[in-house]
Amino acid sequence: MSFEVAADAYDRYMGRFSRPLAAEFLAWAGAGDGPPVLDVGCGPGALTTTLVDALGAQHVAAVDPSESFVSAVVLRLPGVDARHASAERLPFDDGTFGAAYAQLVVHFMTDPVAGLAEMRRVVRPGGTVAACVWNFGVGSPIGPFWDAAHEIDPHAPVETGRPGTREGELARFAADAGLADVVGGTVEVDIPMATFEEWWEPFTFRVGPAGDYVASLSPDTRERLRDACRKRLPDAPFDVTARAWAVRATA
Ligand SMILES: C[S@@+](CC[C@H](N)C(=O)[O-])C[C@H]1O[C@@H](n2cnc3c(N)ncnc32)[C@H](O)[C@@H]1O
User: Fold this and answer.
1) CA of 93 to the centre of ligand 1 (A)
2) Which end of the chain, C or N, has fewer beta carbons within 10 A?
3) Is the pLDDT of residue 1 over 70?
């Protein structure tokens, strides 16, 4: 999976959606039992930045398995305790945090229940564990891309099967991870696109599964995919409405 990429490429591909999502997700999830707090699967720091703005860097920790993203957080957000680690094995003692958040990460975890159980372990009893994942049914900001990819290539990868992307799944994982007071919900953001090119170009930056797929195509097939995407989107300027499933629960 291509998350060993430059932070700027990620920002232009997914950060444009995940930065506004972070504010809405945190407002929905709540502050938990207060600082310090943990951002799991932080990427180059969309949600981490929102946590730092609210609490100060010294009260925020962040982990990600991608070395390039952890390096970006260290550079961008001095004072944050940024570490190279996966959700399934968090390098923190029991009950360290008042809250742990995972934005757009559960569907990439090798074992989502184990990852959420680890988040529960490192949060104090009574604190909050919260996660969100794009709704790949109706509302992923890259949904038109995958629809167009399947139109031209029946063998294109399928992201709709990723864990946590269907209604109710995140809540089930949270309950299976031993969390209490599980509440499911949705978080939604609108992101303006001035041109079709603004939407399309970051798919060519080799970020994530969509970027991997575009990089695997011949120039001719890539051009057909680009045309198929353009036909599926409104005339520019247009807004992308991005919807995520969310869960919050008590450790
Ligand atoms: C779509 S990005 C989300 C990044 C960031 N949270 C945001 O909202 O922009 C998915 C992130 O999950 C990370 N990731 C993948 N598998 C993971 C795992 N098992 N545990 C923690 N993070 C993981 C990737 O390295 C990547 O940074």
Assistant:
1) 21
2) N
3) no
The model's pLDDT over 34-56, given as tens digits with 9 standing for 90+, comes to 999 999 999 999 999 999 999 99
Whether pTM exceeds 0.90 = yes
50 lines ligand 1 (CB under 6 A): no
Residue 201 lies in a domain: no
163 within ligand 1 shell (Cβ under 6 A): no
How far is the C-alpha of 102 from the C-alpha of 248, rounded, in Å? 10
Task: At 147, list the tokens.
Answer: 């629809």
Specify the residue with its C-alpha closest to ligand 1, atom 27: 43
**pLDDT digits 0-9 by tens, 71-128:** 999 999 999 999 999 999 999 999 999 999 999 999 999 999 999 999 999 999 999 9
Residue nearest to atom 22 of ligand 1 (CA): 41
| Residue 127 belongs to a domain | yes
Q: Domain tally for the chain?
A: 1
Q: Return d(Cα 242, Cα 228) in angstroms, integer.
A: 20
Domain that residue 119 falls in: 7-140+159-190+241-250
- Which residue has a Cα nearest atom 10 of ligand 1? 105
Residue 31 resides in a domain: yes
Asked if residue 204 belongs to a domain, the reply is: no
Asked if residue 49 has its Cβ within 6 Å of ligand 1, the reply is no
Distance CA 56, CA 68 (A): 23
Q: Is the distance from the beta carbon of residue 102 to the nearest atom of ligand 1 less than 6 Å?
A: no
Which helix (H) or strand (E) segment is 216 a member of? helix 208-216
**CATH number of the domain encompassing residue 15:** 3.40.50.150
